[in-house]
């Protein structure tokens, strides 16, 4: 898919290629590693679970459009299984997710998805990408998703990333649609190599340390003129960082490409920087008092 007017185009092309061959190699290694044996009710290996999350589930959501895009409880449970297997294992999250009522899962996820779908629907075919309006709509949806037990900003971003199915819907094929990325540790590390503080997994970090950096490596908000799924970049970044941890050979060209993109520092277009604009760490806090904070 042609996505942007290229700036540092070759570096971006090289980086995204890591989301294909290298990503598959790392996923296969994790799937074959004996320490990773966390299967779902679907009785899938990890590479099969990743295939389900990346392709099958978005297709299922697409089939539910426009009648009522929502997740079933078991789908939410399996998404958490994918998240915990692929990233940091937090056993309490599994229990919290499983404690949600099925009707609540359907209702909350429907409101979260519909909020972003309405935002996309209101874009005109002539609109260019506007970061401020995108950020506002996305923040609203992340807060809605976070009403579920066990869902903080990171998991909420995972749910939002499933909106990739929108790119297959004819209603949106002439609009500039940006699909929000999943907030994962490895991609955040890759985008912020000099970061030394421990992540709090709040909304401010999601926007400042993740979303804005993705826009940066695309050449800046003002340069985006076509639809783009930021999860393509997230998968590439995850593959690079996790590949290094798993002793998978990571070609130096990927590291050089990422460095070049981060050093280019293009204009962020309409992005407005300000500590108070998006600091909403309360989104990571539960509605009711409990000892465990979801991510």
Automatic annotation (TrEMBL):
<protein>
    <submittedName>
        <fullName>Uncharacterized protein</fullName>
    </submittedName>
</protein>
<feature type="compositionally biased region" description="Basic residues">
    <location>
        <begin position="285"/>
        <end position="295"/>
    </location>
</feature>
<feature type="region of interest" description="Disordered">
    <location>
        <begin position="270"/>
        <end position="295"/>
    </location>
</feature>
